[in-house]
Amino acid sequence: MEIASAFGPVYDAERFGARLVASPRHADGLLVTGVVTRNMAVPLLKTLEATPRPRVVFAVGDCALNCGAFKGGYGVVGAVSEVVPVDIEVPGCPPDPMAIVDALRSVTRR
């Protein structure tokens, strides 16, 4: 919901040049939410490989940053940073849509 809000009419991340695309081959970055589970570790790595360089990886939300309430779960591999390198972290449970927009905007300021 927060990502949809960040790209919706109120926060409008697209006005800063950020756009959601359907394929990682057309992306400049990956916005990853939630913990990495056993079933999703390999697809995450393959998605990262399919994203052209230079790329940015965003870990969005407390679950993505430190596994949140799912820490120690039997199907949990770990936080996003334990599987792929993370460039930008957006804390919160749930993260504020404006924090997501600010993180996206920080890429253009690099």
Topology:
Elements: H1 2-6, E1 29-33, E2 36-37, H2 41-50, E3 56-60, H3 62-66, E4 76-78, E5 88-90, H4 97-108
Parallel strand pairs: 1-3, 3-5
Antiparallel strand pairs: 2-4
Provide a descriptive summary of the structure in words.
The chain is α/β, with parallel strands linked by helices. It has one domain: Rossmann fold. 29% of the residues lie in helices and 16% in strands. It is built from four helices and five strands, in the order αββαβαββα. It has helices spanning 2-6, 41-50, 62-66, 97-108, and strands at residues 29-33, 36-37, 56-60, 76-78, 88-90. The strands form two sheets. It has a three-stranded parallel sheet with strand order 1-3-5. It has a two-stranded antiparallel sheet with strand order 2-4. The radius of gyration is 14 Å and the shape is globular. It starts with a helix and ends with a helix. The model has no long low-confidence stretch (mean pLDDT 94).
